[in-house]
Amino acid sequence: MASDARFEFESLFPALGEAALREQSEIMHKALKGAQVLSEMRRSDLDGSTTPKELVYSDGHLRLFHYLPARAGAALLPPILIVYSLVNRYYMIDLQPDRSLVRRLLDLGADLYVLDWGYPTPVDRFTTMEDHIGYIGDCADVVRERHDLERVNLLGVCQGGFFTLCYAALNPARVGNLITMITPLDFDADDTLLARVAKHTDTDRLVDTLGNIPGALMHQQFLMRSPFAQNIQKYADLVNLFDDRDALLTFLRMERWINDSPDHPGETFRKWIKDGYQGNKLIKGTFELDGRPVSLGDVRMPVLNMYGERDDIVEPASSAALEKYVGSTDYTARSFPVGHIGMYVSSKVQSALPSTITEWLRVRS
Amino acid sequence: MAAENERSANPLWDSWIDTLKTAGSPVSAYASLVEQWRGAAGSASNPAEAETPVGEPPPNAAPAAFLQAFLGGQQALLRMTELAAESMLSLGIPGSGFTAGPAASLEHSLGEMRAKLSANPLLNGLDLWTASAAQYHRMAAPWTELMQRSIGVAAALGGPSGAGDPLGDALERSFGLLANFPGFNQELPALLNEAAVNATALAGARESYRAIMAATWQRAFEELTREVLRRHADRQPVESPGALLSLSTGVADRVFVETFNSERYIEAQQRLSTALADQRKYEAKVVDLFARFGHFPTRRDHDELLREISALRREVHALKRTLRSPRTAPPQAAPEPGPSRDRGTPDGNATATAGVKPRARGKAARTAKSPPKKRKNGE
Q: What is the spatial distance between Cα A89 and Cα A118, in angstroms, rounded to a whole number?
């Protein structure tokens, strides 16, 4: 039987033995090279956010940074406040010099601020979505005051896009132009795996039991989209990067970001899932913040909506639905042939996406 | 005297005071019984006058002083019992056993005693004491049962020990009581019972989840084998371990993601997370129980604290916003921009927006020319 089994195996994989030896030799060679490259790396090499910036405002965990212009006095456009999601960290928009939405925008004359939500602690389990949107208002006020502006431009990313839409709907007179990027909006149109799980989640039980939702739990839910590629294949392929310092650094920076999952504030998560994924209330016109109805019809400023055509975290249809509900008569939609993460780092959009933003803004400034 | 006229609001307490005051006096209602006791004990009404035949030992050799004290105590106890029974009835305490009224009940009880004494004459002081003790026990039974019941009721109603009075309860609550120890009260067993029921549900949910996963692994291996065989048949065999790994992860991803998207899996995941959350809830309750006994803050206390901190933060932010510079007050509503709807290109090629009506941006234009004012961190 054993010989039969060996025969079958060899018949199925005729060259496997020889190839295995060859691969093993290659892997050893690359691993040695990789060990040398890794030994020369420093912790600071992994710092993603490389573009110089200054802290201009802080409040608890929240920090507001101002990116310094690429060249002195180079900012040609009115400032944009970037509001990232509470899931993962904002520095993905500035991963490294050659994959940096921030750097490209600065080069094109944008003046950028970014809101860093920080890492919530157990105290933040009762921090509500209303609180978060209030913090956006605080940061917007800081920017308006620094630049003596009546209105500020907002760029909301993913969940941050949902928040900025709410802020803009409640404070239309304070927002000049609104840019949303890979923003989930019509949850009924979202049939991604994450959306399906979210729609079936007993959110009350989860939040009442756990308080803040652990980042590690959410991280695993994201990995479910391709568990073996994310947990095995990716690391098996790593060996091919060992002799390429730059590629290895990019990989490690991406890994750092992917695994840098802050806990999600409990009460905000409750509303996000129940009123968003399960209730789809903003689309249905029944969404409220602190008892105030939030209507997308009140978003009357110019809107640029950008999304990824291959996004498997936020279904493109979910983002594209904004057009039907927004009150603005100056609405622009742009889609890009990438996925969710590709919108920040894919080489396919490194020039097209930033220039779309600056050109759109320039016409309206 | 004024002091004698002072009555407390508690009839039971007053009854005991009266009893103590009258303890040494004959109780007229039971005079015949007392006389019979005296007779049985070989004593006259006045022990000093007791007749003892010369040269013969008395039928009962109990000392006169003992008998005097004993009879005085008997009378006092009879009176106390009677008054306590009356008090219980006046307080409306149900189930005291004195359904026909205390006097009638006592008469009945004492009649029984009388009959026994007649049938079995007492021979000495020890017999008298034994008979009395038995009778007391019988007479006290309704009272004892009532007290036992009231302790149970008090405990069930949340009193720490059923001490029966608010001050006692308050003292015990303040200083803690061993009876509150989680192992001694009903709360922990009840909680553990509930947790055990949930543990069964959790085991079921876990097994359902594992069964789905096991079936998915099996299917992934089947499909991988099928794919390897197909390639072999097509003369495109897998030629390296790396290629085999790549093929395996590709097939497994497809099969597993298909499972993850299925209603069956989502339901199983939901069941598992629900049961796990409930188990966590029971764990927290048990910890809270012990924390409460040890005077440590519980999870509930902790949550309340966090909630208060959040509310205070909110108030501080509201104040800050109120005090903020008038320059940041909301301006007039933005002018309506000209109509323009650009839906982008389906192929994803980004193009500059055309035909969009530019808006006046006076302030923004000023900003571009002037550097921002400096602002201190945390301002």
A: 8
pLDDT score recorded for residue A314: 95
Distance from CA of B295 to the nearest CA of A (A): 22
| Active-site hit among A158, A168, A289, A341 | A158
Contact A34, A239 (CB under 8 A): yes
Nearest alpha carbon to residue A57 among A110, A112, A115: A115
A61's tokens: 């965990």
Q: Which member of A173, A233, A329 has the closest CB to residue B339?
A: A329
- The tokens for B26 are 């004959």
Please name the residues in contact with B60: beta carbons below 8 A apart, sequence gap of 6 or more: B40, B41, B42, B43, B122, B123, B124, B125, B128
Which chain A residues have a beta carbon less than 8 Å from that of B269?
Answer: 197, 200
Give A36-51 pLDDT, tens digit per residue.
888 888 888 887 667 9
Cβ of A123 within 8 Å of Cβ of B245? The answer is no
CB contact under 8 A, A236 and B242: yes
CA-based nearest distance A46→chain B, Å: 26
Phi, psi of B127 (to 5 degrees): -60, -45
Of B250, B273, B334, the CB nearest to A151: B334
pLDDT tens-digit series, residues A181-205: 999 999 999 999 999 999 999 999 9
Q: Do the Cβ atoms of A323 and B341 come within 8 Å? A: yes
Do B361 and A365 make contact, defined as CB atoms within 8 angstroms? yes
Give the span between the Cα atoms of B280 and B298, in whole angstroms: 15
Who among B245, B266, B352 is closest to A236 (CB)?
Answer: B245
Identify whether A158 is a catalytic site residue.
yes
User: Quick one: A224 exposed, middle or buried, by C-beta within 10 A (0-12, 13-18, 19+)?
Assistant: middle
Q: CA of B217 to nearest chain A CA: how many angstroms apart?
A: 12
Q: Chain A contacts of B358, Cβ < 8 Å?
A: 363-365
In contact, B248 and A176? CB cutoff 8 Å: no
CA distance B231 to B342: 48
The answer to whether the Cβ–Cβ distance between B350 and A193 falls below 8 Å is no
At A280-309, the pLDDT tens digits run: 999 999 999 999 999 999 999 999 999 999
What would the DSSP string read from start to end of A19-75? Answer: HHHHHHHHHHHHHHHHHHHHHH--GGGG----S-EEEEEEETTEEEEEEPPSSTT--
What are the tens digits of pLDDT across the range B318-372?
Answer: 998 888 755 555 554 444 444 456 555 434 333 333 333 333 333 333 333 333 4
| B258 chain-A contacts, CB cut-off 8 A | none
Q: Which residues of B143-162 are buried (b: 16+ CB within 10 A; e: fewer)?
A: beebeeeeeeebbeeebbbb
Residue B365: what pLDDT? Answer: 34
Q: What is the pLDDT of residue B156?
A: 52
Do B350 and A356 lie within an 8 Å CB cutoff? yes
Facing residue for A12 by CB, picked from B237, B346, B358 = B237
ipTM (interface pTM): 0.84
Q: Which residues of B touch A268 (CB under 8 A)?
A: none
Q: Scanning every residue of chain B, which has its alpha carbon at the shortest distance from the alpha carbon of A343?
A: B348
Q: Can you give the pTM of this predicted structure?
A: 0.69
Residue A99 has which token pair? 């994959």
CB contacts of A201 in chain B (<8 Å) are 270, 273
A333 close to B342: Cβ distance less than 8 angstroms = yes
- Residue B282 near residue B273, CB atoms below 8 Å: no
Q: Classify strands A79-83 and A62-67 as parallel, antiparallel or unpaired.
A: unpaired
pLDDT digits (tens, 9 = 90+) for B79-102: 666 666 665 555 555 444 555 555
